[in-house]
Amino acid sequence: MQDNQTELETTAAANDTSCSCPSARELAVTRFQQARAFAAAKVNQIRKAATEQASTICDYAQEKGEVIRDKAKKFHEAGEEYVKEKPTQSVLIAMGVGLLIGLLIRRR
């Protein structure tokens, strides 16, 4: 008799669980959709922040590139002017630098 009552209780508990499964499933689907929406919002937020950072970095690099180009242009012009004023000294300096580079390369 005791065994039959236990079986009935187990069967009733199983029936109760199967009855609550659709609502548990719906709850799980709802939670999943909420998590998905939250993740999508965070991804968009991160994408926006990354785009802004990339834009800032790009602008900074362009500004620095212009400064470097201007300095290189001035250095080049000063070099040309020096060579025009002192051609012999410029050739001797160039030969000396070439000799040093040749010696350094030969040692390796």
TrEMBL record:
Keyword Cytoplasm among record annotations: no
Record PANTHER family: INNER MEMBRANE PROTEIN, INNER MEMBRANE PROTEIN-RELATED
Keywords from the UniProt entry: Membrane, Transmembrane, Transmembrane helix
Protein name: DUF883 domain-containing protein
Example of a GO MF term: ribosome binding
Domain DUF883: 80-108
Matches recorded under InterPro entries: DUF883_C, YqjD/ElaB
Transmembrane segments: 88-105
